Structure formats: C-alpha cells, structure tokens
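User: Could you check the structure of this?
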Amino acid sequence: PEAALLRFHWRGGVFDVVSVQQVMPHGGFTFTWMVAPSEEAAGELVKAIGQHTREDRHRLMVFEDGLWKKSPRLEEELKGYSWDSVVLPAGESARLQRIVELFFQGSEVHRELDVPWKLGLLFYGPPGTGKTLTTKVLAATCNVPFLYVRRLTDYCGDSPDPETVRSLFQGARDRAPCILCLEDVDTLVAENLRTTFLNEMDGFEEDYRGVLTLATTNHPEKLDAALLHRPSRFDYRIEFPLPEAEQRRDLVRLWTGKLARLNYVNDPAESVELLVQRSRGMSPAYLKRVMMGTATRMHHEELRG
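Assistant: Sure, the predicted structure tokens are below.
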C-alpha cells in the first residue's frame, strides 16, 4: 500500500488527512480519513470544499467520470477558432450569433417577464456538416464558461444513474451564465435517465439563470419526442445539411486560398469551380479531407523535386 499524510490549518483548527492507496492487478482503491478538531468543523470544511468546486469558473470545463474537470489543453486548442473557421448556409452564421448574443444580454428581460433565463439549441444533420465545429466557435467567442459533456459514466466507469445527470446540470447552474454542450445527445439519454434528463432541462427559474444548453445529433429521429418537440427544452432546432453549391464554393475558396499561399495552386479561380462541381454530395469534413490529401500529395511531389 502507498500512503500520504497532509496536515493543514483552516479557520484556527488543525486538520490531518490520511490517504492509503491499495494497488491491485486490475485497478485499486484509495481510502481517505480526516482527523478534525470536531465533527462540526469537519462538516464545515467539506461544505466549503464542495462550494469552492461548484463555483470554479474556469473558462472551459469537461464532464467525465461523474465530475466537472478543467481541461487546459482543450481550452488552448479553442483559442484558434473564430466565425471565419466555419462556413454555414447563407445567413445562418449571423442568425446563430444573434440568437446567442440576445440570450446572454437578456437577463433583465427574462426577469421582468417572470420567465426562466434559459435557452436550448439543437444542431442536427449528417456527420461532418459543421455541428461540432460550430460549437467550438461558440466556445471560443461567447466569453462565458463553456461546459462540455464528454461522457456520462460515473467515477467508477459504470453506466450513469440519475444522480450523475443531476450533478451534470447542477454544475452548469452553479457556473451560469454559461454554455452547456451535449454532443451526440441521442447517445447520452438512455431510457433509465430519460425522466431525470427531461426534468433537469425544465428546471425552475431560480435554478436556471443563464444556462444555454447546446446539443448536437446526427440522428434526430432517435430523440424522444418529449425532448425534441417541447419548446422549453430545445427552443431552436438548427439543421446542418450537406452543403449546396454556394456553400461548397465558400469552403473550397477557404482551402484553395490556403493552398495558393503555399504555392500549391496556380489558378485558384479555375480550381474552385472544378472542385465545386466534383464535390456535390460531400460534407464539409469530407471536402476538407480531400483538400488536405491534395496538399499532402503536392508537398510530397515538391520534396521529390
């Protein structure tokens, strides 16, 4: 067994925390004991730690193993995203930005109208059409905490129970105003969690003060009708379809511009129209993969001389 002892002072009292870890072939257990001046002092300390954890307003938090955790690496990655990073159907970027902007400016309006200050957005459409990319752009540009749900398993790696779902939503309320992102929501809401999930999304006014719930799905038909069609849960359902010619043209221009700066494209205008014609039916992610493959081959040929 491995053990550790921590002694510290808090509010005039001396506390000892003893931790013993039992390592086993397929995992292990950690046992922790605290020696406090009194039972009341121990309770106050635990309460203070819990409050501090709930009020952690780190810019980006990830929910996994039943807990909200900081993710500095993901936070650093998101700094490179802006609305120039994504190409959506005509007018959709401006519409989405306006919806989100009005929501986070609407605290007083909601208070005066005596309605909960909360909003639900559902992004749906085929894989690779920009749903996840758009969530990353919102995370980088909204200047509020972004809470990303990675998985719902509990701290032991077991299937989630209703208490896990309640912890998830309580963490969002404690950090509001914020964006709560539920990616692939159809895979998160198991049958045994359905009632708890719906109740938590409804909430009460005093619980919801600035939570924007953003969910994505490739399969809206798999969502429960009570989740999909009730406005108080997802007020806006925004489709991300396969791109039409004009959107593909914008996507190709974005990438041919990058390739031209690397001297991989001699005539960007001619290349754009050719690729627009040939990319019909491609998702933005697939088209990006094609452009990256082209750049890789060109670079390889350049190295070979």
